[in-house]
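Dear colleagues,

As part of the handover before I leave the project, I'm documenting each prediction I ran so the next person doesn't have to rerun anything. This entry is a single chain, and its sequence is reproduced below.
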Amino acid sequence: MAETETDVITINFNGENIERVTDETPASEFLAGVLSKSKQKKVILVRIDGELKDISTPLTHDCRIEAILPGDDDTLEVLRHTASHIMAQAVKELFQDIRLGIGPAIENGFYYDFDYQRPFTPEDLEKIESRMKEIVKRSQGITRENMALEEAKKRFEKLGERYKLEILDELDAQGVEKVSIYGQGEFIDLCKGPHLPHTGHLTAFKLNSLAGAYWKGDETRPMLQRIYGTAFFDKKSLKEHLNRLEEAKKRDHRRLGRDLDLFSLHEEIGPGLILWHPKGGIIRKIIEDFWRNEHFRRDYDILFTPHIARRDLWKTSGHLDFYTENMYLPMEIDQVSYQLRPMNCPFHIAIYNSQIRSYRELPMRWCELGTVYRYERTGTLHGLMRVRGFTQDDGHVFCRLDQLNEEIHEILDLTLYVLRVFGFKRYEIYLSTRPDKYVGSNENWERATDALRQALEKEELTYEVDPGEGVFYGPKIDIKIKDCLDRSWQCSTIQVDFNLPERFDVRYIGEDSRPHTPIMVHRALLGSLERFFGVLIEHYAGAFPLWLAPVQAIVITVTDRQNQWAESVVKKLRTAGVRTKADLRNEKLGKKIREAQLDKIPYMLIVGDQEVIDMTVSPRTQKGQKLTAISVNDFIALVEKECREVFNC
């Protein structure tokens, strides 16, 4: 029977129109007609009108199609998602009466959650990884099946997969009628896809670790067992990644925090609440002093505000409408409901509204190291990186619309300078624009977005536009710093706010003697002191630069004969502002030096009989470099010069 006009669709491949392709032709069949056999074997996905799809996807309309080979970030995510399914298949083959949770790809890897009667062991991981290799050798085809939601329920009910059934019930409540199921051999899973054509594409993978994870992150739900893994398209990339993981373990801020006596957490205090030890406290003071001094230099005023406020304040701000799940329960004081603060912004607005403001007073730049309290689920807490009580390096600028461009530029300049001082010079930067639901006029949104964009371009910074990802109250810039292991950490943000000034009736008297609404800019440079400290610990592996080190120098004697001179050296250094201690123990010199190195002290000042005679010290760096003996004054000058150079970045 001859093809009718409706049976034929037009495909644009490599810029060429290829006609007379039958409707419902699989993409793989189409590619077989336009690619060599050797290239066909390398294709793992297709991109149809810009969207990644399985190569088995039927072509149902005129479209543009690309053949996708391994390599980019998108394909790596698909590889890892497929790896999670292969891992789940291996687990189902090895263990009886196991139930599947979810198994997504994540940054640098993948995981899958399982409900099993006993805890998995490291030996189990070895068995699972071995079975995964067997499944890879089978090169089992991975197929997609679209089916009615009710049919899917029957399939998973027969398998006893109650967590999948819960997901299907939620989709049913949302009005979803059809779902997709992926299968390989006897294994099936509920999934949107896409996936690789067959299991044989997974050639470089490793299972990393075990963890507990509440179902849907809710501690009232069952605790599942999470297996983490990673996967790459080649073994070289996998090896490099595993080496980075090993280095990351050495730098783990939780271990270093304990070993270097910087901070601790205690169950009797409460999860997610940090105790700063003396050494950590010194570093925090240094950070805060630098932060405050730099803000004074940039014409900011320092504010201090309370940790609680009447609950009605958070109703006015909108936090009770949009943020309640992250706020703690109210407390009753004198029959009035109070709330631990989750944000500092309403307090700064209250100070602004404490008197009538003139256009001549703007811009007003205020900042505060304000401790806030947010409820984070127990399963999400992680050392210093995610806590329940933390100190934001908060700041707010109230300005006129005509001042916005210059203020944004000044904030960005300050942000980048502060980050450079701490040793971060590489960033991922995002400009988030207006979402579908927003407040404020289109004109103000455009002006604010342009101001953010122009500031980025003036600094000659590379950035990505994140369309529609601004918050409802205004556009923003997010800066993720890159550490020495090339990991990204969200710290700095600059946000323009059209919402709170309206909610709190914030006004200034303009040149026309009429009230006007100022623009409010929220900004945080470090994010939170706790999280930033954690990043610093891992970035420097606990060996902080001289200006940040809690102990900058330790005076080490060779024998007891040098104790008197050593004590006088310590006194002189401390008087000059050098953070110094002494090791006068009757121990071998090598042991003292090794312990000082383990404590990550930048300078060891060795004092023997000759140093006493010459009234000098012999410096030795934490990395083992020996310097020529110098006077105490010369060492003080050396420390001052090295610290001073940090701020000239």
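The first helix runs from residue 27 to 32. DSSP finds 20 helices and 35 strands in the chain.

All the best with the project,
I.
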